[in-house]
Amino acid sequence: MSSSIDPRATRSRDAILAAARSLLLDEGPAALTHQRVAQQAGVGRATVYRHWPRPEQLLLDLMTDVDMPYFQEPEAPVRSWLHSQLRELADAMAVPHIAAVTLTLMQGALWDPQVATQRDACLEILNERLEVALALAAANREIDISADPIDFSAILVGPIIYRVAIQAGSVSPHFIDHLIDGLGRWDVDSIRRADQNGQPA
Amino acid sequence: MSSSIDPRATRSRDAILAAARSLLLDEGPAALTHQRVAQQAGVGRATVYRHWPRPEQLLLDLMTDVDMPYFQEPEAPVRSWLHSQLRELADAMAVPHIAAVTLTLMQGALWDPQVATQRDACLEILNERLEVALALAAANREIDISADPIDFSAILVGPIIYRVAIQAGSVSPHFIDHLIDGLGRWDVDSIRRADQNGQPA
């Protein structure tokens, strides 16, 4: 963080993002006008304009907070690490404002090329992380992979988005296990060995 | 169709729905105002108001066209029938206005209880149909099911929505087969027998 940033500007930026998040949650993306956001944040409209000339950019910045923390730095046994990551993702998706931002990102990408670019960047990071994790699992002989790497996220994340954001249902450990099983044939003995040894080289 | 319906009213209703569909596709749900829809359809605003007092209702009627034709009347072998149904669903989701309506339905349901009710009705029909189809497959000994019936649609449809509407990617036959494999253990011999015999009782 650069020391040249005005702390007052940071405070108003944070207040505006919090206001936008709360409006999005309560009323949907149509409420994200400069006027409503400024009013809710208790700042002038000009301040909102200065940071985000177009309301869509505000939505993009809300989204940046949401998509990134999952599937980083895999650990052996990968199977249980994957389970805990999918649990965190499912719990996050169950938070209304995260579901709202996620579905708004998906929907907005259909019409707004800038949103589509942001969406594609998120998806690519997700794919890369899952490929790294499953490569580790394969190297550890935890799994004999049968799914195509390009399908990992559709197989794991697609059903969780469907269950949480579309069916408004909850994600059981059994459901997560079933999705993980869909990647290939897991070897119980190798998973147990990885668990005892910690993460192998 | 009742003969008491004024054919002129039907024509203007169809024109309004077509206009709304085209606006949704080109500009997103924010464009579905009474004024824009009336202009695009070449009818008076009052006509749009009369049929759809709130723009959300127009969106709901667009959605009614979209979700229903899949997974009806399963045939043995269920596996190949399921494959062809998922192919049709994937091809439909790849049509921009159907993807748009689907994501708008999902997103709108977060804020609008009426949209949520419509969404839930669609999801319930989908679940029921898949349960019927998989019950037939199990009765034919095509499959030893390992997934919970409540998860059928999340396992089959979730990844397809993810692939088509979120990743903007295409659905290969291999991808569909992989999803179908996720329901349980399929028996190749029983599938072949069902194929030779037509649909058993």
From TrEMBL, chains A, B:
Keywords: DNA-binding, Transcription, Transcription regulation. Pfam families: TetR_C_11, TetR_N. PROSITE patterns: HTH_TETR_2. One of its GO terms (molecular function) is transcription cis-regulatory region binding. Residues 33-52 bind DNA. It comes from the Bacteria. SUPFAM superfamilies: Homeodomain-like, Tetracyclin repressor-like, C-terminal domain. This is TetR family transcriptional regulator. It comes from Planotetraspora phitsanulokensis. The lineage of its organism: Bacteria, Bacillati, Actinomycetota, Actinomycetes, Streptosporangiales.
